[in-house]
Structures
1.
Amino acid sequence: MHIKFFGAAGEVTGSRHLLEGQTQGQHFKFVIDYGMFQGGRDANDKNLEDLPFNPAELDFVILTHAHIDHSGLLPRLTAQGFKGTIYCTPATEALLKILLLDSAHIQENDFERAERKQKLGKWRGELPTVLYSVKQATECLSQIKHYDYGQVFEPINGIQAHFRNAGHILGSAIAVIDVLEDGQSKRIVSSGDLGMYDRPLMPNPDVIESADVLLVESTYGDRLHRGLQETEDELVEVITETMKHGGNIVMPAFAVGRTQEILLLLINLVKNGRLPHLNIWVDSPMATAATHLTEKYLEDLDEEAQAIFAWYKKHSHSLDLKFVADVEESKALNRIKGGAIIISASGMCEAGRVVHHLSWNLPHSQNAIIITGFQAMGTLGRRLVDKVPMVRVMGKEVAVRASIHTIGGLSAHADQAGLLRWLKGFKKAPGKVFVIHGEENAAANFAAVIKEELQWEHVVTPQKGNLFPC
Ligand SMILES: [Zn+2]
């Protein structure tokens, strides 16, 4: 058997790992995750590049979770001839229905807008790429089969697999795959993305005790996150101060995961008497859909999160939580002069309704903007974090008079200590460890830490295109 890394190797996005070999006298070929490359100038080229296999010959796909950097090219794979099954958890399937269709919509819209401009002579350069259409995304969704955590399934004769909870986002999984090779079973474990330990919303990542081949993520393999206590204290301080001065708070947040985490934190702070009655608006159709899904799959969350939700159901008067339905209602929020907490997407302030809320709230000094997630270079969110005095929002120059606060402790990814804690669950060193899903430094740093702290010998940081026997 061998493994080929053709994404998320030496970088964070584009998770795609091909496994190929023989079982029960048959040749097999499958991939773990099939994500989109995001950010950076060459992402588009990577999404379009030739594949190291014929999609029609691929037996199946094992998908760890719904994030686009793990799932986002699946519709393209289907369009290119893949006919097999995509295996994931039930909540991941539910999220994919939102995320993949949204991804296709955005691509179609961007293309149509550019084409219209081109006809008017207002578009220079190439038109944006459509990686797949809404129709192709819909077709892809019909190839999904879901299994609960712990439920064993057999994609082909000789290969058995099951999912364990990765504690990263709703439905996120660690994939455990047992391949029968020459009469012996070989276990491949892919960590997927691992969540933080002891944080609200998601449970701790499940312990896995053995693997012959281990793929482990390393997004934050070279650093430690701030503690939850500190994060809560910062939130309480900013919210209390802003409310005292009659201001509004805008919190840009990723629709899936982060929005629900923030809601839970805020409800918990009200429950514990650290914050007074709050007026919260969630203004993002995708965040609303994802929050309803979170309630539907409540049993996948940790016990504390379930208890907080249950408390809120009984004490819903303790805070006013509203989900904004349409654009008109969203615009009406602009008339609120103070006392509102608006949670809206996109997380990096590049698109979506949050842009409108920023343009209204940034020019007034009594307001506060709370940044809770990673802001990539070149985004509006990053300029706010960097405290630029004037920013361009929707084609207008806007003065930044609102206070900007970066709350660093919220992350859907385990930090170095968390990743190590998960690895310590293995009873003995896996035969081979591949450190993936991290930028060069983070992956190399974490590989060195594994060797030093755990005394594991066979630890590799693969590069894109590398192939290894395993
Ligand atoms: Zn993820």
2.
Amino acid sequence: MGKNWKDEISTPALVINYDIMQKNIETMLKFTKENKVNLRPHTKTHKCPVIAKEHLEIAKRLNAENKGICVARIGEAEIFAQHGFDDILIANQVIEPNQMKRLIELNKTFSVKVCVDYEKNIVDLNNLASKENVKMEVVMEVDVGLGRNGVQPGEPALKIAKLIKKQPNLDLIGLQGYEGHLTAIKDPEILKRKAEECMQKLVDTRDILNKNGFKIDYLTAGNTVSYKYSGKVDGITELQTGTYIFNDEHYYRVSPEFDMAVTILGTVTNNPGNRYYTIDAGLKAATNDNGNPIFKDYPKCKIRVMTEEHSIIRASPKDNFEIGQKLELYPSHICTTVNLYDFFTVVKDGEIIAKWDILARGKNY
Ligand SMILES: Cc1ncc(COP(=O)(O)O)c(C=O)c1O
């Protein structure tokens, strides 16, 4: 038997199956192209400029619109800007004063838009921007039901929009509505109805604004579960999905059109007996906020306990592992798991083809 790619990797490790990732990107881009919306991928899933560039290449090949990227944090925006991305939407608010200053600084060179929803933040951003002689674009976030960020749709949104209009250094370019509370819905009919209701709130708010003298047509929304309905609503011009690129065990149950492209590779380090084994991938190798990771090739083998450095697993009677054997697991929450690693190992056709640095990991400040 020849050498296996797993033998070449020090564990725990994060491994991308290139072909699956590529297929996931193509699946999302084919959807957005068919539905004539832009795809602004949310890079909080991979945090890796090389992957964002790979995404652009695939979009170019498919002749699909892939304008700009989303990030979650100012620190991520800085990394992607340093690596050549000039159309960045921070799909979140930047409220902390030091971070606001960094945002204005970035806008001296790059176009880094931010979501706003709060009066004082809007005035503060404008004051800082005018001090530095910077003009910047902002997107108003509308709460379409998640109850996390955003102004309420309709009149409250109009009031905030009017406040933004009064700020000479801010330019309101569109509305964001993130329907993240729909991601657990399995019934397609319910999901469709709820996604449409959420998007309608965004469209109606746009109409109220435009009746009051605004000229808004940029509406950005979507997640890896409800995108297939949100992206079809008339008026939605952009999807800002992220997880689809890798998917994970949690989302795979509701969005199986995206196969799982990333595994955690661990090594069996002990066999305490009675079908229990210890592997070297614990909570520093995989998060379990969405449940424990599952084994790729051993569906009946389960993680019983996760500690910092180890997981204790219980194998099925058929699974006889050897100490030193390498096992692949599917993460249950890919975005928080990626944040634990310095780099991805990329595998294609059974060969390691690259090592990609996760440069924006931990840049959530
Ligand atoms: C504001 C915002 N937009 C888009 C997304 C992307 O969602 P998903 O990763 O399900 O595609 C997220 C995910 O957390 C988000 O917070």
